[in-house]
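Batch 3, record 17
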Amino acid sequence: MKRPSRQGRPTVAIVGLGLVGGSLARALTRAGYRVVGVDRPPVLRRARAARAIAAGRSLAAAVSEAQVVVLAAPPLANLRLLRALARPRRPVCVITDVGSVKGVIVAEARRLGLENFVGGHPMAGTERSGFAASSTALFRGRSWILTPSGSTPPAVRVVRALVRAVGARPLVMPPADHDRAAAFLSHAPQIVSWALLAGALGDPVARRYLRMAGPGFHDMTRLAASPRALWREILAQNHGEIALALARLVEGLGHAGPKGWSLVSSRRRGARR
Amino acid sequence: MKRPSRQGRPTVAIVGLGLVGGSLARALTRAGYRVVGVDRPPVLRRARAARAIAAGRSLAAAVSEAQVVVLAAPPLANLRLLRALARPRRPVCVITDVGSVKGVIVAEARRLGLENFVGGHPMAGTERSGFAASSTALFRGRSWILTPSGSTPPAVRVVRALVRAVGARPLVMPPADHDRAAAFLSHAPQIVSWALLAGALGDPVARRYLRMAGPGFHDMTRLAASPRALWREILAQNHGEIALALARLVEGLGHAGPKGWSLVSSRRRGARR
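Prediction for the assembled complex:
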């Protein structure tokens, strides 16, 4: 039988103890929650040693023990986990996720009839990844988007409380709004960061003088160190919105320059004076 | 008669006490140089009060007093100043500048026969501007490009010593290499920063949720606060190289996404699964 942990706080199972899952485990444990983790044995050992989790569990054991399950694996794995949680019988626990795209997983939860699912996305992160990069403070002061869609009000309340417990600000919006905004504010900037670095590396002169770059370039290419495999899944799930954001960006590149600027022009205004 | 200041260090005249000129004045004064400033009276008063300069001067007085003149005004003003310094007779002082484009001003110095001119560009800065944003530490650990072209070896030595005195690393390269590298490492990123912010502000959904943006977006749009008027001059002087860097960036946007990615496609892969 499921019982809330200390001071009536639910036991939370976190599936995937990477940068986000690991940070959430640390922050919730510090906030007094009982946290159990699901991941590969070496990761669980490290998380136990760091006192980020009370115990490591199999998925089945974690789900039967916890009142809340947080899916913190990469997007495609989260979808598989969601399907696994929906059978053979509906779980009584609340389920949320921390994925960067909300439309796909929210639609899947509705298709599966999971009214205890509340989509979530903390707007926090770094270019680093894995449990080693996790930190208690990752979410402090950050927005944490929630995209309830057919979710029960008690499930939303439980997830809201988790978000507040780690110092983040819950922000409720429709999944489609999230995916549009994330395309402009997170996904397109990620691609731009890669493309800026690739452009500089691809030019023999710029590449030779890469060490001359100032803080602006470093800030704008910091995200380029983000894990590619994870991002491939994110980009594939939000393809249409990102294509829109990038098309707008390319238009904007034309407007941001001097009057009459054209990306294909090779006329050198500076030399004409 | 010109005499070196304390400990044999030259007196330096800085024309334009904005972010870069003001920071240079502070750093050189701290390093024991005598620095005189040329700017509008209120700026000179502030710089004197901050002990960034020993005295404010007219351009003519500064040039007759100093062994080194640093042009730290916007690019077009630097060109006008260079022409003013070349008449009625060649100045005996060393001249350098801190502009973001080197080809145009170096060519002008050669045309004017100014062998004491050494083009320079500190790879440091912030999105802020004006003397109020200046700081002693701005150049510490940064690269400072020098583009001697027909410059006398003693002039290059003097400018190198200034650069080292403020904690920067002199890096010598041809003006054309500088302008190519700067297009990829500084000028194109500046335009991208504006375009990313403009894209987000131009989309009604992204605009509404701008406050949800994480640290990545903030880093990538920090430069968007840079002064537009100054940048218009920079972009105009390096138009061809920047157009090349942006064209490469746009190509890169296509490659950075998932396989088969296209900027014009509106097919939503995520929704197809």
